[in-house]
């Protein structure tokens, strides 16, 4: 990494309007390509088999699980009508041992977690009502509303004997082994769940986004354009874009740090867009850049280019540290010293050092927001003329966004909005609302399970 100056590094993370537009155009091309491709390696634009959004009037009590990149959430969801819900939820951390073990061990554990929830809500559920909606935050080839083959798993997962298997069979196998009386009635992706659940509360919602450990999005597409869909005839279809897996080197503005993260990941050349914007990777981008700055004597020059051993540990700089540092808006940025000393034992930062680390982290956060806004723009433009009308003078479109990066990273929503203004212009961007979506996976899964098991068409 020889020759990098501080300004070189900041410039490498700062996107020009032309670079942002290339992302919009490139993602739009891939969205269109994904609608019809039969290449099994292309996991984008997956039909969800869900053909409409909820009305907000649905009622009932259903089980749900939401399996993400970091946690498993089990829930009993009360749909109360008028967009209201009541949720009893339990959260369980998915350990590294589980992520890299056997599929059977993972699904036995999920069954144990579900059994624990049933003890909590048993008084609310009759034995004939144990229908479950499942939100699965990984690539599925959906074959029915309650069936789908696992196509790929990122986010640190490396389970044996899971890829290519039907998720309903995997889950119900665990339930049967553990004597848990639950039937999987619906399977959805977390972004589909975010879209469905936020539309239950806010009918103007047309796009659902996840921005947490990983990232993904869902939107409504005209069924006639979804050439890969072979199910019953319908007018429209909610698609799981799997935009995390999109991105080509001809339009993604990858820095040398992005390329290094990709090269050492479990699956190189997979989920390259996600590796540039999501919570699992932002902290590591920061660490690699800090290491480079120290080696070039652009940071902590008293170390004479020698990087502390603590900073050499991969993934040791958490995205949470970035949030802590950006939350300190004082001119002295003392949070930089606090984080580096407390977590890495690194002391002796000058005011210049603190300012440089703060500026670096801010540039990486702004880039993530700009790229996410560009991806949302691609969806808005792809759907324009159907469920969206960007040129309307009155119609408002809501994007429901769930995830820790959007919720907890300082001013992330404002950064995204600023990027939308730069891309779309003030007038059109003013009609796009970015709203925080909560518990989208659980509520969305329950909504789809309820409509499916009640005999309606989702």
Automatic annotation (TrEMBL):
Ranges for domain Hexokinase C-terminal: 206-450
Family annotation (PROSITE patterns): HEXOKINASE_2 (PS51748)
A molecular-function term among this protein's GO annotations: ATP binding
Matches recorded under InterPro entries: ATPase_NBD, Hexokinase, Hexokinase_C, Hexokinase_N
UniProt keyword terms in alphabetical order: ATP-binding, Glycolysis, Kinase, Nucleotide-binding, Transferase
Family matches, as Gene3D superfamilies: 3.30.420.40, 3.40.367.20
Family statement: Belongs to the hexokinase family.
Name of the featured protein: Phosphotransferase
């Amino acid at each position: 990494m020889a020759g990098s100056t501080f300004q070189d590094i900041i410039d490498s993370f700062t996107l020009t309007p032309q670079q942002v537009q290339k992302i919009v155009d490139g993602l739009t091309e891939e969205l269109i390509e994904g609608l019809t491709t039969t290449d099994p390696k292309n996991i984008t634009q997956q039909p969800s088999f869900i053909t409409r959004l909820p009305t907000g009037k649905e009622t009932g009590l259903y089980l749900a699980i939401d399996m993400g990149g970091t946690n498993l959430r089990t829930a009993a969801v009360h749909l109360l009508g008028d967009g209201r819900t009541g949720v009893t939820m339990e959260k369980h951390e998915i350990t590294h041992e589980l992520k890299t073990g056997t599929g059977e061990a993972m699904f036995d554990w999920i069954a144990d977690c579900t059994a624990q929830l049933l003890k909590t809500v048993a008084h609310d559920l009759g034995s004939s009502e144990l229908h479950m909606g499942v939100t699965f935050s990984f690539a599925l080839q959906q074959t029915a509303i309650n069936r789908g083959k696992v196509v790929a798993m990122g986010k640190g997962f490396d389970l044996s004997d899971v890829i290519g298997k039907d998720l309903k069979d995997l889950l119900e196998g665990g339930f049967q082994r553990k004597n848990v009386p639950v039937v999987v009635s619906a399977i959805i992706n977390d972004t589909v769940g975010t879209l469905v659940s936020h539309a239950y509360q806010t009918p103007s919602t047309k796009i659902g986004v996840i921005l947490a450990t990983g990232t993904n999005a869902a939107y409504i597409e005209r069924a006639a354009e979804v050439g890969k869909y072979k199910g019953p005839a319908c007018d429209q279809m909610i698609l799981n874009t799997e935009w995390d897996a999109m991105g080509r080197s001809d339009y993604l503005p990858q820095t040398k740090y992005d390329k290094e993260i990709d090269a050492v990941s479990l699956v190189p050349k997979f989920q390259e867009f996600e590796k540039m914007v999501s919570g699992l990777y932002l902290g590591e981008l920061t660490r690699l850049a800090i290491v480079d700055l120290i080696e070039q004597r652009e940071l902590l020059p008293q170390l004479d280019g020698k990087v502390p051993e603590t900073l050499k540990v991969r993934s040791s700089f958490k995205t949470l540290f970035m949030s802590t540092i950006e939350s300190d808006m004082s001119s002295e940025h003392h949070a930089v010293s606090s984080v580096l000393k407390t977590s890495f034992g690194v002391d002796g930062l000058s005011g210049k050092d603190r300012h440089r680390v703060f500026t670096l982290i801010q540039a990486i956060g702004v880039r993530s927001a700009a790229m996410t806004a560009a991806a949302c723009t691609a969806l808005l433009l792809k759907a324009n003329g159907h469920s969206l009308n960007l040129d309307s003078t009155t119609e408002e479109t809501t994007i429901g966004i769930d995830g820790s990066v959007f919720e907890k990273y300082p001013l992330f929503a404002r950064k995204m909005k600023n990027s939308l203004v730069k891309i779309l212009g003030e007038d059109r961007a003013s009609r796009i609302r970015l709203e925080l979506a909560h518990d989208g996976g659980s509520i969305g899964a329950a909504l789809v399970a309820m409509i499916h098991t009640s005999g309606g068409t989702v």
